C-alpha cells in the first residue's frame, strides 16, 4: 500500500468521524503516473448519526512545494559558499 493511499485513508476515516480536515497534506497519483502534493479541506454533515453529505476541496500544492524546496536548497548553497569565502578571506592581504 502506497504512503499516499494510507494518508488518504486516514483523512477519510477522520472525516467520517465528523472531524473537519483543514489543509490536510496528502499525495495523489494521477492517471499519467505522476504524484501530486495536495492539501485537503473537508467536512461531513450528519443528521444525528446519519450521513447527509460531504464537502471537499483538494488544492494542488506541488509547484509551491517544488519552489520552496528550490529556495531552501539555494539558501543552503549560498550559506555554504559564504562560509567558505569567509574562511579564505585574509584581511590586509
Q: Treating each run of at least 4 consecutive H or I residues as one helix, how many helices? A: 2
Q: Helix/strand-derived class?
A: alpha+beta
Rounded to the nearest angstrom, the radius of gyration is 22 Å
Using DSSP, what is the number of strands? 3
Shape: elongated
Please mark out the parts with pLDDT under 50 across 5 or more consecutive residues, or reply none: none
| Biggest sheet strand line-up | 1-2-3
Order of helices and strands: HEEEH
Oligomer: single chain
Helix content: 40-55%
- Amino-to-carboxy terminus distance: 62 Å
Mean pLDDT: 81
Largest sheet properties: 3 strands, antiparallel
Percent in strands: 35-45%
Quick overview of this protein structure:
With 93 residues, this protein is an alpha+beta fold. 44% of the residues lie in helices and 35% in strands. The protein has a three-stranded antiparallel sheet, with helices on both faces.
